[in-house]
């Protein structure tokens, strides 16, 4: 129907929870008159107060003028109930709990009180639009209009056509979404549509990691933010959405794809949902919330590197304890017939067994290990003994003077001499 999106003036939002409030805020800010309806009158009053408060915060941040905020507040109109007369409504958006029977019953009642020109839309996140409209006398007037939480910030909106939705309706809803400043995308009427279907991989695997005790929720979320570049981690997202919404979606997608193993829900979410650990709305979920602020545990830091005092010690000694005098020892990796010492490097703190005929440790600057070590080539150090062989380098002959700072000199004939560097 040409021009329908521009002619829409009044929209009724049924359900004043988190999603209903967000949709009402977006529509009122976009210039539409918004009727707020709920089965609980006190919920409607709380929603009007909340949305008005959000407009006040936008004014304080400079994102909205005081005049625009006052006009938007004036466009919020509470009504007596979901099935109140809707003669002036151009569009009704349902945002009640994710239950097929509840939605069918609601739309059957709305069909009786709304005129024929009124378009009906469901904000379902996973249920079949075709199944919801099956109970209507005229299912052609029903389509899916799936917003994401928080609605004012999440600009993507899925527009879903059921099997019997009128051909003009998806295009008309797409135009209305653009009028409100959001970005529409046409999605197929399959379990989870586009976004929730694609997002099952992250959430399902994160719950599997938690169930196997591989990592804590805070660690998984940090990796998702710092490595994957996401705005929030999977457990933060579950807390924001609420397990009373997320878990039914998990089960709906799983059953919708005929128990596909890769989409199997986790027992963790059902148990926490039944325990009332719903997330931010309940004050506690995978995180605790105080005055709406998430209480995140501090990040665990790795232990400091193990350091060994300079000199000789035995491998049985604890790190940093005073070392006893050097004495001959053996290693399981070497012959017990040869004297060995457990020595450390002052530069790196690494301790290794090394071949030494004397009881003295290698001088400062040498890093000794079994039959090999590393010394800076071409740079002076306290010693560069000839018995050191760099990794991958030539094997140098062992010094006949292990108790002294002998060097392998490139003289003719070659001989051991003090003060020479090993040949390159």
Task: Provide structural commentary.
The chain is α/β, with parallel strands linked by helices and 424 residues long. It folds into three domains: 4-187, 3-Layer(aba) Sandwich (Rossmann fold); 195-295, N-(1-d-carboxylethyl)-l-norvaline Dehydrogenase, domain 2, CATH 1.10.1040.50; 308-317 and 337-357, no CATH class. It has twelve helices and 16 strands. It has helices spanning 4-7, 18-29, 41-60, 66-74, 100-113, 129-133, 169-179, 195-211, 217-226, 234-241, 243-256, 267-274, and strands at residues 10-14, 33-37, 76-78, 91-94, 119-122, 142-146, 156-160, 183-187, 288-290, 293-295, 340-344, 351-355, 367-368, 373-374, 406-409, 415-418. The strands form five sheets. Strands 3-2-1-4-5-6-7-8 form an eight-stranded mixed sheet, with helices on both faces. Helix 2 crosses helix 3 (41-60) and helix 11 runs antiparallel to helix 12 (267-274). The model is unreliable at 308-342 and 351-424 (pLDDT under 50).
For the structure shown, list the relevant keywords.
424 residues, alpha/beta, Rossmann fold, N-(1-d-carboxylethyl)-l-norvaline Dehydrogenase, domain 2, 3 domains, 8-stranded mixed β-sheet, two-stranded antiparallel sheet, 12 helices, 16 strands, disordered C terminus
């Amino acid at each position: 129907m040409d021009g329908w999106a521009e002619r829409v003036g009044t929209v009724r939002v049924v359900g004043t929870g988190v999603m209903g409030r967000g949709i009402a805020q977006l529509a009122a800010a976009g210039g539409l008159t918004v009727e707020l309806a709920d089965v609980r009158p006190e919920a409607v009053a709380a929603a009007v107060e909340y949305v008005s408060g959000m407009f006040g915060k936008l004014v304080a941040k400079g994102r909205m003028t005081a005049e625009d905020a006052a006009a938007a507040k004036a466009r919020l109109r509470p009504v007596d109930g979901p099935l109140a007369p809707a003669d002036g409504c151009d569009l009704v958006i349902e945002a009640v709990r994710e239950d097929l029977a509840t939605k069918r019953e609601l739309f059957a009642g709305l069909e009786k009180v709304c005129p024929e020109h009124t378009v009906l839309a469901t904000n379902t996140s996973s249920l079949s639009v075709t199944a919801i409209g099956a109970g209507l006398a005229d299912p052609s007037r029903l389509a899916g209009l799936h917003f994401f939480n928080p609605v004012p910030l999440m600009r993507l909106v899925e527009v879903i056509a059921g099997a019997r939705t009128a051909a003009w309706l998806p295009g008309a809803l797409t135009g209305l979404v653009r009028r409100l400043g959001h970005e529409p995308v046409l999605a197929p009427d399959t379990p989870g549509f586009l976004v929730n279907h694609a997002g099952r991989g992250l959430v399902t695997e994160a719950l599997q990691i938690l169930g196997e005790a591989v990592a804590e929720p805070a660690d998984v979320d940090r990796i998702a933010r710092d490595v994957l570049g996401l705005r929030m981690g999977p457990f933060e997202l579950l807390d924001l959405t609420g397990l009373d919404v997320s878990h039914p979606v998990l089960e709906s997608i799983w059953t919708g794809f005929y128990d596909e193993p890769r989409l199997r829900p986790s027992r963790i979410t059902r148990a926490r949902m039944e325990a009332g650990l719903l997330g931010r709305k309940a004050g506690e979920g995978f995180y605790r919330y105080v005055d709406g602020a998430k209480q995140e545990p501090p990040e665990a830091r790795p232990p400091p590197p193990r350091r060994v005092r300079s000199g000789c010690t035995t491998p049985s000694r604890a790190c940093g304890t005073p070392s006893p005098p050097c004495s001959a020892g053996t290693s399981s990796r070497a012959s017990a017939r040869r004297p060995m010492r457990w020595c450390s490097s002052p530069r790196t703190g690494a301790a290794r067994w090394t071949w030494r005929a004397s009881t003295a440790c290698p001088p400062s600057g040498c890093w000794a290990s079994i039959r090999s070590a590393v010394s800076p080539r071409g740079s002076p150090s306290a010693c560069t003994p000839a018995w050191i062989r760099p990794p991958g380098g030539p094997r140098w002959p062992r010094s006949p003077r292990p108790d002294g700072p002998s060097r392998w000199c490139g003289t003719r004939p070659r001989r051991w001499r003090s003060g020479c560097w090993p040949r390159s």
